[in-house]
Design goal:
By secondary structure, the chain is of the alpha/beta class. It folds into two domains: about 160 residues, 3-Layer(aba) Sandwich (D-Maltodextrin-Binding Protein, domain 2); about 100 residues, D-Maltodextrin-Binding Protein, domain 2 (3-Layer(aba) Sandwich). The chain contains 13 helices and eleven strands. A six-stranded mixed sheet has the order 2-1-3-10-4-11. Helix 3 links the parallel strand 1 and strand 2. The longest helix has 18 residues.
Length: about 325
């Protein structure tokens, strides 16, 4: 780590720890042996469960290690907290049980709706160019979204921007204001991968998901393109991002969130994680590769105003 990347807060934190040590000099040996790690709050991170569990474990455990190594070194414990669905990460962020979360656009604005001082701080290089893809059974005689009337349709998670919010918004642009009335059945698969699998297997005739996930599945040869095909692709929008809870500044100092943003944006291929792969046992986890990006860049709350406006228009705060 270059000296220029040492945290601005390191001096203040070290001073605080030294003061604690000096204060305890007159106490019993058992007290003076307390670890500095015990004096700092644990930073808990999480991310929306948008892919298989082992990939999520690799991604976020390696990222947690990077933050600990880069931010306050041995003085900061960073822990990854898995969640079962989008609603759980939003709920745990609102309660403060998770302080730094990797959110989709809709889950992020819902969390900020309840925690107004939360800050969107970083997104991947291409997250401002996100798209959703509508897919259909290959034998379905449909050329437009309007041709899907009366079909069985599945979104992804109810709190997914690319799997639910934006697809519902684009359906609205085509005059489909009420999907429940337009389709014969509306489902929520829970994840992008599950969406294309359900359409491929014929449980639904059409669905919507992240174009990135779809392209990755196609490239891997996982999709049977004789069973399912692309109907249409949406225009671009901001999506995934890191969201910081205001308690971070309360726990680590007024510039802590700003410092976290700098560290995340500074992440490049030179960082080597010691986390070992579990999806492909024994492999080294490359954080950027695991996030499917070449790097992160700064973002801000206002970049998601259109998402917030759409969520409010669709009355998704109450869902």
């Amino acid at each position: 780590m270059k000296a220029s990347r040492f945290p601005k807060l390191a001096v203040a934190i070290c001073a605080l720890l030294c003061a604690l040590v000096l204060t305890s000099c007159g106490s019993e040996n058992s007290n003076s042996a307390s670890s500095s790690e015990d004096t700092l709050p644990e930073l808990v991170i999480s991310g929306i469960p948008d892919q298989e569990t082992c990939r999520l474990d690799e991604r976020f455990n390696a990222f947690a290690q990077y933050l600990a190594d880069s931010y306050l070194g041995r003085n900061l414990r960073v822990r990854y907290q898995p969640v079962t669905d989008y609603a759980e990460i939003v709920s745990m962020f609102i309660s403060g049980e998770i302080q730094l979360g990797w959110f989709g656009a809709l889950a992020g604005v819902q969390a900020r709706h309840e925690v107004p001082d939360a800050q969107a701080i970083a997104e991947r290089e291409d997250d401002d160019k996100f798209r959703s893809v509508f897919i259909v059974r290959a034998n379905l005689p449909a050329t437009t979204l309007l041709d899907l009337a009366g079909s069985r349709f599945t979104f992804g998670s109810e709190l997914s921007a690319s799997g639910r919010l934006m697809p519902e918004y684009f359906l609205g642009l085509e005059g489909i204001e009420n999907p429940e009335m337009f389709f014969s059945e509306v489902g929520y698969s829970g994840s992008h991968d599950r969406t294309w699998q359900l359409v491929q297997d014929g449980e639904y005739e059409a669905g919507a998901l992240s174009k990135i996930v779809w392209d990755r599945a196609v490239a891997a040869g996982s999709v049977d393109l004789e069973a399912v095909r692309v109907l249409t692709i949406t225009t671009t929008y901001h999506n995934y991002h890191w969201l910081a809870h205001p308690s971070i500044n309360g726990n680590y100092g007024d510039e802590a969130i700003e410092r976290l943003q700098e560290i995340i944006v500074d992440l490049d291929g030179s960082y080597e994680s010691s986390i070992q792969g579990i999806c492909e046992e024994g492999s080294e986890v490359d954080i950027l590769e695991n996030f499917k990006t070449s790097g992160f860049k700064p973002t801000k709350n206002s970049d998601y105003n259109n998402i917030s406006n759409i969520a409010e228009k669709l009355n998704l705060w109450q869902r």
